[in-house]
């Protein structure tokens, strides 16, 4: 009767009536009713929501060997709902359920072995449990098996095997599987490279609100790959992803507002999105925040704020930010002037192949600023920059060579 009222089959749907009948059966020791009653308390359906009451009834069901009760007890310990949070207790209950072939518990157990939570980390054990779940058609298990094959964790690395498992999940409408298939098609891993196929899979996933897929669609519309180029469509998809907190999309949306592509140009809106992304630690957005403060776009001009944001980005190895930070130390803007600090940051940028950093290193050696003056070192760095097409470095090479010849003659 509880099931009938809960599902509205043969009777008007009523969570309250469902709870009444589940309670009667549960108090007589019916394990399925105990599980169902726990579920109603957990979700607050027909009764005031209470994790403690949910745990009480899940535990009664689980202690009778009910695999769904065992699995849900695992979840309660995993998230610390109605009980103290404990990975070890979660593992205990998931294992009991998994050994009864509950595919959700099998997948969860795989997660614990993959991440080393509550158990010793083991990709091989993770694969064992993911496989059991996936072979029962569990979409999350299929996706996780795809990941393990993609990265060669606990199994031989194989793009083809990854595609096999992602496809199984995607064909069931799993948004992560669809997004992963989009990536495989985008990069031609295990399948023929195809922007059109990538778009098809990303769209399926994006329409289910997967923010990664929404961001990818934004990229493809922005670049006109697999679809007709459209900044307006790019803005649409970046916005959807950005509003879900996707930091990459937030930065891309900031780019479009800054440049007035697909939207009315607005430095203020650009800063809003750059800041959201930068505060999540996205190094490109941190650089962009520095640039906006440096030039006073959408914010009051501030060399000090520029330094703060460039430093955050530079410390994450963004070579453009490292070079900019070098400029500010060289010129004493927003920081105490220091050629030595300038050289330190220029070096970091130059060693990553940043041609502006290479050119600046050449200039510092040529003029002996922050380093001993060295024509040979200057030429070395100018040459590296010139080979990348830096005209300033090429000019320095020509003029410094002429000056040296004049001195020698």
> How many β-strands, per DSSP?
0
Biggest β-sheet, characterized?
none
* CATH fold call of one domain: Serine Threonine Protein Phosphatase 5, Tetratricopeptide repeat
CATH architectural category of one domain: Alpha Horseshoe
The CATH superfamily of one domain is: Tetratricopeptide repeat domain
Class computed from helices, strands and strand pairing: mainly alpha
Q: Cα-atom Rg, whole angstroms?
A: 29 Å
Any idea of the CATH class of one domain?
Mainly Alpha
State the order of secondary-structure elements, H for helix, E for strand: HHHHHHHHHHHHHHHHHHHHHHH
Distance from first to last alpha carbon: 106 Å
Question: What is the number of helical segments per DSSP (H or I, 4+ residues)?
Answer: 23
Shape: elongated
Q: What do the pLDDT scores average to? A: 94
Helix coverage percent of residues? over 70%
InterPro entries: Sel1-like (IPR006597), Sel1_AlgK (IPR050767), TPR-like_helical_dom_sf (IPR011990)
Family: Belongs to the sel-1 family.
Pfam family, one: Sel1
Structural account:
The protein is an all-alpha fold and 409 residues long. It has a domain at 1-100: Alpha Horseshoe (Serine Threonine Protein Phosphatase 5, Tetratricopeptide repeat), CATH 1.25.40.10. Helix content is 70%, strand content 0%. The chain has 23 helices and no strands. Helix 4 (51-62) packs antiparallel against helix 5 (67-79), helix 8 (123-134) runs antiparallel to helix 9 and helix 16 (267-278) runs antiparallel to helix 17. The mean pLDDT is 94.
